[in-house]
């Protein structure tokens, strides 16, 4: 499952062209880092260039610099992968964010009570970014952990977060996303997605029934700060063969909502 990323604009279409404060080399380096995903852990220069739109020569220089700094390596000299030191880039954010620091005990308790995997994510660009997770078992073919990203439009947490966006921002988002039919269940049009987001906004939760991956159901609710702003989403993921959609609503949703209320007290 490849997550679509926006390419760094180049040439005359670059909105930052002429901005003396914008460091194009730094932006390209960050794009190269973000090209690596759980599904594509090893990438060649050509693959990164194709994925990001950055010229191969520039990709080569970025990888050389990142390699010297200890962030990437290529055992065979051709196929690059990230090194553990890359975690230091996100550690400062996760360590200093009250939400990420304080929610783990509540999340762990919820996971143990339901015997299911629970997560918290925020909206980051067109993706959701996992900032806390308590896993009881692996229910997806890809590993999810803190720092993982998934397309917002196709996930329960993403839909909760998107449903809270102002209309102008939501319209802009819907106008630029690329919708991929991951399973036969996946919502396959912007019109249907907009209707689903309207439903999520009205009912206060999102239920994703095997749209991202067959065999996976999840339900999510918003985390709301004292000012009434949705700042993150909390979800529970289950095996579709073990927990029905009706059971998610009747048994899991009330516990999820209770945990969300408790967590909201930590957002002051």
Topology:
Blueprint: H1 24-34, H2 45-52, H3 56-68, E1 72-73, E2 81-82, H4 87-96, H5 98-102, H6 104-114, E3 117-124, E4 127-134, E5 149-151, H7 156-163, H8 167-176, H9 190-203, E6 206-209, E7 216-224, E8 230-239, H10 245-264
Helix pairs in contact: 1-3, 2-3, 6-10, 7-9
What does this molecule look like?
This protein is of the alpha+beta class. It contains ten helices and eight strands. The protein has helices at residues 24-34, 45-52, 56-68, 87-96, 98-102, 104-114, 156-163, 167-176, 190-203, 245-264; strands at 72-73, 81-82, 117-124, 127-134, 149-151, 206-209, 216-224, 230-239. Helix 1 packs across helix 3 (56-68), helix 6 packs antiparallel against helix 10 and helix 7 (156-163) crosses helix 9. The chain is globular and about 55 Å long. One of its GO terms (molecular function) is DNA binding. One of its GO terms (biological process) is negative regulation of DNA-templated transcription. This is Helix-turn-helix domain-containing protein. Pfam families: HTH_IclR, IclR_C.
Roughly how many Å is the radius of gyration? Answer: 20 Å
| Helical segment count | 10
Helix content: 40-55%
Measured by DSSP, the beta-strand proportion falls in 15-25%
What pattern of helices and strands is seen along the backbone? HHHEEHHHEEEHHHEEEH
Identify the overall geometry: globular
Q: How far apart lie the N and C ends?
A: 37 Å
How many strand segments? 8
Low-confidence stretches at least 5 residues in length (pLDDT < 50)?
1-13
- Overall pLDDT: 86
Protein structure class? alpha+beta
The major sheet is characterized as:
6 strands, antiparallel
Could you give the order of strands across the largest sheet? 5-4-3-8-7-6
Keywords: DNA-binding, Transcription, Transcription regulation
GO biological process, one term: positive regulation of DNA-templated transcription
Domain HTH iclR-type: 23-84
Domain IclR-ED: 85-268
């Amino acid at each position: 499952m490849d997550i679509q990323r926006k390419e760094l604009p180049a040439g005359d279409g670059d909105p930052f062209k002429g901005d003396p404060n914008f460091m194009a080399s730094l932006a390209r380096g960050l794009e190269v880092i973000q090209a690596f995903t759980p599904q594509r852990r090893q990438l060649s220069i050509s693959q990164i260039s194709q994925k990001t739109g950055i010229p191969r020569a520039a990709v080569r220089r970025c990888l050389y610099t990142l390699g010297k700094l200890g962030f990437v390596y290529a055992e065979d000299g051709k196929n690059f992968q990230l090194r553990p030191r890359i975690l230091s880039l996100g550690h400062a954010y996760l360590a200093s964010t009250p939400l990420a620091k304080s929610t783990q005990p509540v999340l762990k308790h919820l996971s143990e009570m339901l015997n299911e995997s629970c997560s918290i994510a925020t909206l980051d660009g067109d993706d959701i970014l996992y900032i806390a997770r308590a896993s009881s078992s692996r229910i997806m073919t890809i590993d999810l952990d803190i720092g993982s990203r998934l397309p917002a439009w196709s996930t329960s947490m993403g839909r909760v977060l998107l449903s809270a966006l102002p209309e102008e921002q939501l319209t802009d988002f819907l106008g630029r996303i690329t919708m991929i039919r991951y399973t036969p269940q996946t919502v396959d049009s912007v019109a249907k997605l907009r209707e689903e987001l309207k439903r999520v906004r009205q009912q206060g939760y999102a239920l994703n029934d095997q749209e991202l991956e067959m065999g996976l159901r999840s339900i999510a609710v918003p985390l709301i700060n004292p000012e009434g702003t949705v700042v993150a989403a909390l979800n529970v993921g289950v095996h579709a063969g073990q927990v029905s959609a009706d059971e998610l609503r009747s048994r899991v949703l009330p516990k999820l909502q209770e945990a969300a209320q408790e967590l909201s007290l930590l957002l002051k």
